[in-house]
Amino acid sequence: MTDILIQPMTAQDIPFIAALERECFSSPWTEKGLSDELTNENAVFFTAKRNGVPVGYMGMHCVLDECYVTNVAVSTAERRKGIGRLLLRYAEERARERDCSFISLEVRVSNESAIGLYSAEGYERAGERKKFYSAPRENALIMTKILKDNR
Predict the structure, then answer these.
(1) Under a CB-based contact definition with an 8 Å cutoff, are residues 104 and 143 in contact?
(2) Quick one: pLDDT band at residue 13, thresholds 50, 70, 90?
(3) What is the C-alpha to C-alpha distance for residues 18 and 35, in angstroms, rounded to an integer?
(4) Collapsing DSSP states into helix, strand and coil, what is residue 104?
(5) Which of 1, 19, 126, 140 has the highest CB neighbour count under 10 A?
(6) Is 68 one of the catalytic residues?
(7) What distances in angstroms separate CA 21 from CA 15, 65, 73, 106, 135, one per listed residue?
(8) What pTM value is reported for the model?
(9) CB distance 30 to 14 below 8 Å
(10) Which of 57, 118, 123, 133 is catalytic?
(11) Of the listed 37, 106, 123, 133, which one is catalytic?
């Protein structure tokens, strides 16, 4: 994995990420929506690049001491090579830098490989959102990783 570099998303990355969104999701973000995140002070979006070519990305919104993942995507040809794990760990580092208490995300209940990855990285099941996804209609599992105990 030493040939993978994770960097903040730039305007030059937007066309690739929009194409990746269309490849991976039934309700993809648009180029404009992604571009808007570049000026959102709560947004933390970044890309995984192999030899300068984007192969994946992740975005999250951090508000106060909470982080919520918007999307994690890795190109089909690059899956199961540890890129998703690198993106999750990079996100955790950014969340810790912002002194966040947790990171939370939603995942399709049928996405067993993603659930396995999130579980292996310390995310725990925190609930379920009924009919969260469309095309196809499906529930979302809410998974959260606690970064610090605020009790």
Answers:
(1) yes
(2) very high
(3) 10
(4) strand
(5) 140
(6) no
(7) 10, 27, 7, 16, 14
(8) 0.91
(9) no
(10) 118
(11) 106
